[in-house]
Amino acid sequence: MTKADLIKNVAKKAGSSQAVTGKVIDMALDEVKSLLAKGGSITFTGFGSFAVSSRAARKGRNPQTGAVMNIPASKVARFRAGKGLRDAVSGR
What we know:
About 45% of the residues lie in helices and about 30% in strands.
């Protein structure tokens, strides 16, 4: 499913236009993105939660040359599925 498919399906279920639904979905995703950029987290009960996690610096290898290189520490977005989503996916 693409973002366009999602917008079309949600607009149909909500009985609104695809243009309005697309703007609402874009605004919701922008809010999640800006919250995570500030280091926050967000939970959708029954669906899951998004949070920022720190990744420690580590050593890696260049696959072409085999040379050891340092990979700097970074922050990454993480998603943890909630019970409702896990049960829906597993068919329970």
